[in-house]
Amino acid sequence: MSKVYLIGAGPGDPGLLTLRGKELLSRADVVVYDYLANKAFLDFCRKDAQIYYVGKKGGDHTLPQDKINDLLVDMAKSGKMVARLKGGDPFVFGRGGEEAEELIAAGCDFEVVPGVTSAVAAPAYAGIPITHRSFTSSVSFITGHEDPTKAESSLNWAAFAQSGSTLVFFMGVKNLPHITENLMKAGMSGDTPAALVRWGTTCRHKSLIATVATMPEEAQKHGFAPPSLFVVGGVVGLHETLSWYEKRPLLGKGVVVTRSREQASDLTRLLAEEGACCFEFPAIEIAPLADTAPVRAAIETLYENDWVIFTSANGVDCFFEQLDAVNLDARAFAGIQVAAIGPATAQKLAERGLRADFLPERFVAESVVEGLLARDVQGKKVLIPRAREARDVLPEKLAAAGCAVTVLPVYDTRPVDQDPEELIEAIKAGDIHYVTFTSSSTVKNFFAQIPAEVLKASQVKTACIGPITAATLAEYGFTPDVNAATYTVPALAEAVIADARTTS
């Protein structure tokens, strides 16, 4: 149904988007969004949704407000479901009220979906509760964008200075001298605790603690710039005790995840939970086979095999997609023993109703062979569903042991066609601290797009899983700075986190 939803995206942490907001984004025909602290919210949109960026950054208006109003009205009148996505809360310095008035005037239906305002969230992530029984029971949200050259301020500085409230100034960094001067002129002590919180709740979060009198000089000294909140009041003194987010070891560290988009989420989540700014740069993508007839033929004779060995979670998914296509399920494996190369692959099998009969101690092909030979696999019939391009160690060694081995390609891996310039610039700017590699193919395809010299000229560390990946990395002149203790994604994340703790 035709309707405009004014949705608050929150201050930047994707986890702070409301469930209602996420649901509406996933259904909307049209998404009209402002400058957002995190574009990850757009991942929730339909792939066929019309996306319009209408925000402003640093005074640069992509679309004037009256034109934004016209766009919302036009889309609603054309029968579209419109998600108007705004940073923070639409009714807290978000001009949501103005847009709602225009929609009413045009006869358009609308709904407001409140968002978590940065005035609450950013101080909270800095360990500053904006109210506290020992300090204050009130808070004021104030625009810091007032023109300092105005002959007379429209703000009641005396009321702010003498209220005892926590004061939270939006967009106030450029006017800090003006704000602090007016507060002190109105009677506020220059020793009153004050804080700046920049990029609050995001991986770039940073805070600065000073006093009202010293903050303008401290902000300039430490290079604080928009977007920042200015918080004033006794509650700021709790920062040292209550700070929690800023203790995350990867906070502000840029980490490149080279796994395929289908697989990147687990590693990205583990790193982001410790504060990392994750750059997803998939070196490979998983592609379905153009011809699945050989897979279906193998399924028809699946019962003839003694062992089926899965070497990746992708192999499990792709094989079972074809199993589902012919109306079969895990029962097709009755009487067959199943091996998984690692815990992630075993977990995928478990989700499909199969428990792996064998999981090696080390998650590489060589260890699989050793373990299976100890289980008298010699002379048995073995099926290996896997990527078309993969190492041949496993089938060759099993064949040498007398096994009848069938290698069954169930998916393709191929390089991702993407523009590397943004990542190259981030590396050169010092925004990247780690590049993670989870397989030889991620190494090869990464360096096919990013010249090795770019990485060598930087301070970026390389992190990888397993000796095979490390050996491929060595071909490009790199020795891994970080190695996972075990050959799993969680272990890789733990190794990067441990390294950050020791070097920060």
At a glance:
The protein is α/β, with parallel strands linked by helices and 504 residues long. Helices cover 34% and strands 21% of the residues.
Per DSSP E runs of 2 or more residues, the count of β-strands stands at 22
Q: Profile the largest sheet.
A: 5 strands, parallel
Under CATH, the topology of the largest domain can be stated as: Rossmann fold
- Range of strand content: 15-25%
How far the N terminus sits from the C terminus, by CA atoms, comes to 52 Å
Query: Would you identify the CATH architecture of the largest domain?
Result: 3-Layer(aba) Sandwich
CATH class of the largest domain: Alpha Beta
> Number of folding domains?
4
Per the principal axes of the C-alpha atoms, what is the gross shape?
elongated
Helix content: 25-40%
Describe this structure in words.
With 504 residues, the chain is of the alpha/beta class. The protein has 4 domains: 114 residues, Cobalt-precorrin-4 Transmethylase, domain 1 (3-Layer(aba) Sandwich); 127 residues, Methyltransferase, Cobalt-precorrin-4 Transmethylase, Domain 2; 118 residues, Rossmann fold (3-Layer(aba) Sandwich); 128 residues, Rossmann fold. The protein is 34% helix and 21% strand. The chain is built from 19 helices and 22 strands. The chain has a 5-stranded parallel β-sheet with strand order 3-2-6-1-7, with helices on both faces. A 5-stranded mixed β-sheet has the order 8-9-12-10-11, sandwiched between helices. Helix 5 links the parallel strand 8 and strand 9. Helix 11 packs parallel to helix 12. It is elongated. The protein starts with a strand and ends with a helix.
